[in-house]
Amino acid sequence: MDAHFRKELGAKIKRGQRGAVAQGRAPAGLAYGYRKANRLDQNGDLVRGLRSIDPDQAEVVHRIFTEYAA
Questions:
Q1: β-sheet bridge partners, residue 5
Q2: 20 to 30 A from 65, CA-CA: which of 3, 24, 33, 53?
Q3: Beta-sheet pairing, 46-47 with 34-36
Q4: pTM greater than 0.70 (yes/no)
Q5: Widest distance between CA atoms in the chain
Q6: Which residues contact 39 (CB under 8 A, 6 or more apart)?
Q7: Helix-strand-coil percent breakdown of the chain, rounded to 5?
Q8: What angle (nearest 5°) sits at the alpha carbon of residue 36, between those of residues 46 and 63?
Q9: Domain locations along the chain
Q10: Residues in the chain where the model's pLDDT stays below 70
């Protein structure tokens, strides 16, 4: 029963993540270099999962990739 529950839970999580991506939202946690950009929709409901680039952290990410490429 426990194995069945875990399998079903995994399927539900993946289905939810696919839906979030289809709506243009982030399906998981906050990655380094981004910050939350949640906003309200037309009905006044909070739209979660939106991200914007954090300029301070973006400099670090850019430096890392530049050094790696060199």
A1: none
A2: 24
A3: unpaired
A4: no
A5: 52
A6: 46, 47, 50
A7: 50, 15, 35
A8: 165
A9: 2-69
A10: none
